[in-house]
Amino acid sequence: MSVTKRSVLGLDRGQDLLAVDRAMSEMRAGRPVLLMGGEGAALIVSAELLDAGFVETLNTFAAGNARLALPAARLRRLGAANRKVPGVVALPTIDMARIEQLVLKVDGRLDAPVAPATAIDISALELTALSLIIPALVIVPVDPEAIADEPLVRVEVTAINSFRKKQVEELSIVGRAPVPLEDAPRTEFVVFRGGEGLRDQVAIVVGELNLDEPVHVRIHSACLTGDLFGSLKCDCGDQLRDTVRWMAENEGGILLYLDQEGRGNGLSNKMRAYRLQSEGWDTYDADEVLGFDLDQRRFDFAAEMLKQLGVRRVVALTNNPVKIGAIKHAGLEVQASRRVLGRPNKHNVQYLESKRDRAGHYIDMDVLMARAAPND
After folding, report:
1. Residue 48 class from Cβ within 10 Å (0-12 exposed, 13-18 middle, 19+ buried)?
2. Helices first, then strands: H and E counts in the chain
3. How far, in whole angstroms, is CA 61 from its chain's centroid?
4. Is residue 265 within 8 Å of 283, Cβ to Cβ?
5. Element containing residue 92 per DSSP (H, E)
6. Which residues are known to be catalytic?
């Protein structure tokens, strides 16, 4: 049996991951991707980033068979009450004004029946989630042979569907160094390649840990506005700094700083949601207008980070029951949990109440309000 140069060099290893990475880059650039699966093949294009100059070409390929794939959250906002699963709307003609109404407009309403989503549609929407763009796609069924010479990124449905799991399996430490902090001088930053989002993940190890005992752990999703700039719209910055300080003053701990801006929706979509919030929308309703459910984050890779650091038992520093459940589901023992409270103010009280009432966060508003500054 002959051995190809590709197999000798090992270049076939991780090809599925690479194909999805490339497809994510194409999605974020507004270029079409060829998605292939058991049901055939289709060109998929971000509805958010659809180029007017490309519409005529797409209409030629589509020959009246294009469709718009939308997640359940956006379909509910468009009038499909109680919708739980994604669906598609027929696009006899790819009309940018109509697509904008269905995808982005607050007052958009369904103007055609919603058909069931296929496996290709669902995988395509998963690709938008991985790419951190608005979850809406123009999908055009095609014969791959007819576009064999086109320089398109090609990706299999199975590759997209297994991408997150493989990211966890490939997770590895790529760098670590001591980084003394203002309130925690004995601190080490450990950088992991892989997981969620588009960048690396960081474990901040505070103090000297006794891994034979439960380790204090906080899973903290990155928040540029709160963590770095002190935004008053959330409590993230307070939670981040207070946790590190508390760990330094007690038995130490690990803060996992994860690339999950905007509950996993990405920074650009977070700003879109903030714009809606400034117009009076609740934080979760604003996300639903954009097509997002309560929370897009996953924490399986966070548990793998802890395992690679030698942690087996934890005291979870969180108000979020989903994080506690994810740690348990991954096989780690959660011996106890401890609340992490920020400071309420007139800009974030509604947000904190929504997290309590709609996402089930453990927040005692009476205790929280006792932390408010006198003028707030």
Report:
1. buried
2. 15, 14
3. 32
4. no
5. none
6. 295, 297
Closest to 357 in 3D by CA, of 276, 250, 282, 275: 282
Phi-psi region of 132 (alpha: psi -120 to 50; beta: other; left: phi over 0): left
Residue 284 CB neighbours (<10 A) = 21
Residue 375 one-letter amino acid: N
The structure tokens listed for 91 are 């696009």
Classify domain 5-161 at the CATH topology level: DHBP synthase (3.90.870)
Average pLDDT, the chain: 92
In terms of Cα–Cα distance, which of 60, 55, 139 is closest to 96?
55
Task: Tell me: pLDDT of 283 over 60.
Answer: yes
Q: Locate the domains of the chain by residue range.
A: 5-161, 164-260+297-369
What is the mean pLDDT of the segment spanning 23-31? 95
DSSP annotation of 145 reads G
Please report the DSSP string for 273-330 in residue order: HHHHHHTT--HHHHHHHTT--S-----HHHHHHHHHTT--EEEEE-S-HHHHHHHHHT
With residue 5 as reference, give the H or E element that holds it.
helix 5-9
Rounded to whole angstroms, the Cα distance separating 125 from 114 reads 16
In 3D, which of 239, 237, 287, 281 has the Cα closest to residue 266?
287
Query: pLDDT of 163-193, one tens digit each?
Result: 999 999 999 999 999 999 999 999 999 999 9
Q: Helix 119-131 crosses helix 15-29 at what angle (to 10 degrees)?
A: 80
| Residue 292: closest CA among 165, 119, 133, 161 | 133
* Residue whose pair of structure tokens reads 């299999």 in the numeric block: 156
Is the four-CA dihedral 68, 73, 79, 83 of positive or negative sign?
positive
Fold of the domain built from segment(s) 164-260+297-369: Rossmann fold (3.40.50)
As a residue count, the chain comes to 376
* Structure tokens, 51: 């180029």
Distance CA 187, CA 167 (A): 27
